[in-house]
Design goal:
heterodimer, A: five-stranded antiparallel sheet, globular, B: mainly beta
Chain lengths: ~110, ~110
């Protein structure tokens, strides 16, 4: 059974701080890693994806992947109240792109 | 932009009724998925399809069936709705690009079974 775990929330950070969201996965064959943001009552939307070890930056967001440790993280710099949402980590390793496994999500609150 | 459209945002049904949830995507994606999302349980895969008339069971297929007669359309069917199927249902699609394709989600269908 493939599993994806995320740090339990809710996570609260003050506005302007760095929010750090963590995710571990059990399947060493996993190849692709995604971070989705989900606002309350809305569907998930993709923030970032990462395939290779190391860091990937996109604006205020940085994804970090360490396949040896089976660990992926998302850093949000200069957090804003609009970043308050649930963040879902998803892992994919299937041949047809169908083996997406989601973590339970971490709820982030950015306090003004 | 990829658009995944779910036919109903909110439905209220009675126990034992047959329920159809429809999903259409406009980007010629090979893969389509049905998830349900419940508080504390996260997103759970019900069924997926990687081609017309093809379907594969996900983690929680019991009580559900699916139909994919055309590439752009993937339907979820609850043959006899029960109260424990009250949930948010999310349809998603992805292109076949090996393991790197991302999921594009519809807006969700919130089903209440009384």
């Amino acid at each position: 059974q493939k599993e994806v775990e995320q740090n339990s929330g809710p996570l609260s950070v003050p506005e302007g701080a760095i929010a750090s969201l963590n995710c571990t996965y059990s399947d060493r064959g996993s190849q692709s890693f995604f971070w989705y943001r989900q606002y309350s009552g809305k569907s998930p939307e993709l923030i970032m994806f990462i395939y290779s070890n190391g860091d990937k930056e996109d604006g205020r967001f940085t994804a970090q992947l360490n396949k040896a440790s089976q660990y992926v993280s998302l850093l949000i710099r200069d957090s804003q109240p609009s970043d308050s949402a649930t963040y879902l980590c998803a892992v994919n390793g299937g041949d047809y792109g169908q083996n997406f496994v989601f973590g339970p999500g971490t709820r982030l609150s950015v306090l003004p | 932009d990829v658009k995944v459209t779910q036919s109903s945002r909110y439905l209220v049904k009675r126990t034992g009724e047959k329920v159809f949830l429809e999903c259409v995507q406009d980007m010629d994606h090979e893969n389509m998925f049905w998830y349900r999302q419940d508080p504390g349980l996260g997103l759970r895969l019900i069924y997926f399809s990687y081609d017309v008339k093809m379907k594969e069971k996900g983690d929680i297929p019991e009580g559900y069936s699916v139909s994919r007669e055309k590439k752009e359309r993937f339907s979820l069917i609850l043959e006899s709705a029960s109260t424990n199927q009250t949930s948010m249902y999310l349809c998603a699609s992805s292109p076949y690009t090996g393991s790197t394709g991302e999921l594009f989600f519809g807006e969700g269908s919130r089903l209440t079974v009384l």
